[in-house]
C-alpha cells in the first residue's frame, strides 16, 4: 500500500492544465475514467480508492455510467481514512447525458449528479454528446427514433447558469466536432473550457486540435490507449503503435509509473 506522502509526491509529478474559465481548478493532465460495462459499483469504488492511494487526483464520470455514486463513496471514504484532506484536492468531471440534454433539465441533472457524488460542486461539467434524446430514464441503449433537435443555445445558457451558481467551476463539451463548436461559440457567453474526445495515436484529431488551440479550448483525450474493443474486431492499433512502444521503452518498459 502506498503511503500518503508517496501518493502526494506522485500526484505532484502530474502536470496541471490551467483551464481558461475564471475560477477553474487546474486540471491534472492524467485522470482515471470510471466507465465500466457491466457496472460493478463495489469494484469501481475499490478501483478509485486504489487510484487515490497511488496518487490519482483527477476522476471522470458521467450520469450515464452509473459510477457517480461509487466514485462519491470512494472519495468520502478516502477523506475518512485520511488519504485525502478533503474533496478539494481532486478534480472531478461529470457529464450531462443525451436524455438530459434539454434546457430545463440541465440544472436538475447537475443537482442529481452532485447528490450522487456527495459533493457541493464539480470541477468540470460537460455536455456528453451533441445529441438530444427525449427525456426518459438513463440508458446507453437509446433508439434513433427517440432523437430530437439539440437546442444548443438553450442548453448552453443552462450550463452557463451552472457555472455562475458555482455548482460547476468550469463547463465544457464532449464529442463536439468543429462544426458543433462553431455553432456553440456563436451563442456562448462563457466559452467551453474543454472538449473531451477520443484521441490516441491511431486517431489524432489534427483538425479539431488546431481549431481548439486557436479558440483556447483544452482538448482532453478519452480512450488514449484505444478503448474497450467497441467495434468487436479485437484490433489493437493503439497499444501496438510505435508511439506507445517508444514511450514505454523510454520509460523503462512502463508506460505510466505513478
Ligand atoms: N466522453 C466520452 O464520450 C467518453 C467515451 C469513452 C470513454 N470516456 C472516458 O474515458 C475513460 C477511459 O476510457 P477508455 O475507453 O480508455 O477505457 P479504459 O478501460 O480506461 O481502457 C481501454 C482499454 O485499454 C487497456 N488498458 C488500459 N490501461 C492499460 C494499461 N495501463 N496497460 C495496458 N492496457 C491498458 C485495457 O485493455 P484490457 O481490456 O486488455 O484490460 C482497456 O480495456 C472512461 O472510463 C470514461 O471516463 C469518455
What oligomeric assembly is this protein in? single chain
List bound small molecules: NADP nicotinamide-adenine-dinucleotide phosphate
| Ends distance | 13 Å
Q: Tell me the fraction of residues in β-strands, as a range.
A: 5-15%
3D shape: globular
Element order, helices and strands?
A: HEEEHEHEHEEEHEHEHEH
Number of helices: 8
Q: Biggest β-sheet, characterized? A: 7 strands, parallel
CATH architecture name: Alpha-Beta Barrel
Structural class: alpha/beta
Which class in CATH terms? Alpha Beta
Q: What's the total count of β strands?
A: 11
Write down the CATH topology: TIM Barrel
Structurally, the number of domains stands at: 1
Give the C-alpha Rg. 18 Å
Query: How much helix is in the residues?
Result: 25-40%
Strand order of the largest sheet: 3-4-5-6-9-10-11
List keywords for this structure.
258 residues; alpha/beta; TIM Barrel; seven-stranded parallel beta sheet; two-stranded antiparallel ribbon; 8 helices; binds NADP nicotinamide-adenine-dinucleotide phosphate
Please write out the topology.
Layout: H1 4-13, E1 16-17, E2 27-28, E3 32-33, H2 41-54, E4 58-60, H3 68-81, E5 91-96, H4 106-117, E6 124-127, E7 132-133, E8 147-148, H5 152-164, E9 171-174, H6 178-187, E10 194-198, H7 206-215, E11 218-222, H8 242-250
Parallel strand pairs: 3-4, 4-5, 5-6, 6-9, 9-10, 10-11
Antiparallel strand pairs: 1-2, 7-8
Helix pairs in contact: 2-3, 3-4
This protein binds NADP nicotinamide-adenine-dinucleotide phosphate (NAP).
Amino acid at each position: 500500500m502506498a503511503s500518503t506522502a508517496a501518493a502526494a509526491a506522485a500526484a505532484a509529478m502530474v502536470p496541471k492544465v490551467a483551464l481558461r474559465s475564471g475560477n477553474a481548478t487546474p486540471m491534472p493532465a492524467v485522470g482515471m475514467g470510471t466507465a465500466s460495462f457491466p457496472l460493478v459499483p463495489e469494484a469501481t469504488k475499490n478501483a478509485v480508492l486504489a487510484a487515490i492511494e497511488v496518487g490519482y487526483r483527477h476522476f471522470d464520470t458521467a450520469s450515464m455510467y452509473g459510477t457517480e455514486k461509487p466514485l462519491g463513496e470512494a472519495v468520502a471514504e478516502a477523506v475518512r481514512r485520511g488519504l485525502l484532506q478533503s474533496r478539494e484536492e481532486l478534480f472531478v468531471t461529470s457529464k450531462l447525458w443525451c436524455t438530459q440534454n434539454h434546457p430545463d433539465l440541465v440544472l436538475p441533472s447537475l443537482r442529481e449528479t452532485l447528490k450522487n457524488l456527495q459533493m457541493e460542486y464539480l470541477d468540470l461539467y460537460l455536455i456528453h454528446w451533441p445529441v438530444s434524446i427525449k427525456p426518459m430514464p438513463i440508458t446507453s441503449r437509446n433508439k434513433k427514433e427517440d432523437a430530437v433537435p439539440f437546442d444548443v443555445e438553450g442548453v448552453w445558457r443552462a450550463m452557463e447558469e451552472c457555472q455562475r451558481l458555482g455548482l460547476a467551476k468550469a463547463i465544457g463539451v464532449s464529442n463536439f466536432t468543429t462544426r458543433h463548436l462553431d455553432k456553440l461559440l456563436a451563442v456562448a457567453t462563457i466559452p467551453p473550457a474543454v472538449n473531451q474526445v477520443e484521441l490516441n495515436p491511431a486517431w489524432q484529431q489534427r483538425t479539431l486540435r488546431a481549431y481548439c488551440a486557436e479558440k483556447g479550448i483544452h482538448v482532453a483525450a478519452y480512450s488514449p490507449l484505444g478503448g474497450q474493443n467497441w467495434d468487436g474486431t479485437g484490433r489493437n492499433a493503439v497499444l501496438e503503435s510505435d508511439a506507445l512502444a517508444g514511450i514505454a521503452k523510454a520509460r523503462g518498459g512502463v508506460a505510466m509509473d505513478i
